[in-house]
């Protein structure tokens, strides 16, 4: 039985690898599709504590758990395959169960986010690889009893059946559509640039500081946090943005028409509401997009407008007040750091809203709807903040936790952010908050971005110190020292690192 369990687990691992390779073509990876189904039904009283505890690891651990279930199912099938009394139908049924369950649950619970044809293809190929792999491993044992031969024939038959399903799902066109949409569009030129806010010149004194965050984040390093395990793949040729709801003149606009409108370019910082104090779920990029106010002006919102609901192509939705939607700095962005908006950041267009945590900056935008009531979006229904305004905070990038410095001095440096309010001062304390020393600020890259700061600290004597940082925003308000977790309004408190100074 141990040999059967090992054979089944190895065959399932092989099948998962084949399915993963296929996912590079845009076909949903079955464990991810099943994980997405779990996310859709997970209640807030479970999901919120998990996200608080695990942060960006939550989704990774979910997928790892689903993969473990697949491997267990494979091992169970392997045991049944070498058990003389086990019926052949039971063996085939056990092997097919995780793949069939994936398609059924994914379509029932997360159908709008997962193409049926592509979902079938991924699971059929995975199932076929499993049955073929298990049959081959059993054949390698050279067991020639009639029961064993019949069982191997049944497994190869299941492989053939999976091949038929894979072929049929390909003909449905889902996989082909996903593969076409996976091709990244080329960088676009800005056709009509109304205003440009160039990145302010940096201070050369900051560039040589080791481990200090760059002024602008590269696309591949920009943080991403999504409810969707499967990122939507959108064909720009068929995509359109709908402006509807409580408006006088609802309309749709195509991708090309969006690019023809006057555009705005500016640097802008995004931060996830689940970012801990000192965390890295915050990034800055240079964006190009169209003013949402311009799009809404064409539709003419009615007098009773209250919220603006932003909906993604995968069904995710959130809302902002109509006044925030009409803010000239609120954009529908389509370029990021000079190239077409990457798929993981919301291609073909996303919302970019100043002063508000990232969960409301909806990606893969397909609909802007004005409503006369307070709309509760995905995270609001799970208890998170509706207003979601950024808190003022500082992060210490260097020195890192518990370094040992030989000359008694160190450059303390990092970033500070307060959304639209800006930062007027950063202070450092090395004596538990009894005394505070003002740091040198670098010019912020833009009006809606973080800024970098540095402070030259000379320790009075060899010892262990706790270095603490705080900021004052542009309105003169000092950030709170009260330590709060991200849920429900975003984290707060001072960031601190332990530093050991040696003689």
| Uncertain stretches | 176-184
User: How many helical stretches?
Assistant: 12
Tally of separate domains: 3
What is the straight-line distance between the termini? 64 Å
Query: What proportion of the residues is helical, as a percent range?
Result: 25-40%
Shape: globular
Number of strands: 20
Class from secondary-structure proportions: alpha+beta
C-alpha Rg (nearest Å): 27 Å
Average pLDDT, rounded to a whole number, is: 85
Main sheet specs: 6 strands, mixed
Strand content: 15-25%
Note down, in words, how this protein is organized.
There is one protein chain. The protein has 503 residues and is of the alpha+beta class. It has three domains: 2-182, no CATH class; 193-371, Oxidoreductase, molybdopterin-binding domain (Sulfite Oxidase, Chain A, domain 2, Alpha-Beta Complex); 393-501, Immunoglobulin-like (Sandwich). Helices cover 35% and strands 23% of the residues. It has helices at 2-23, 30-41, 44-54, 57-82, 88-110, 116-140, 146-172, 174-182, 204-207, 255-260, 292-299, 322-325, and strands at residues 193-196, 240-245, 251-254, 263-271, 282-291, 307-312, 317-321, 331-336, 339-340, 350-352, 365-371, 393-398, 404-405, 409-417, 423-429, 437-438, 440-441, 451-458, 464-473, 495-501. The strands form four sheets. Strands 1, 4, 5, 8, 9 and 10 form a six-stranded mixed β-sheet that branches. Strands 3-2-11-6-7 form a five-stranded mixed β-sheet. Strand 2 (240-245) and strand 3 form a beta hairpin. The chain is globular and about 80 Å long.
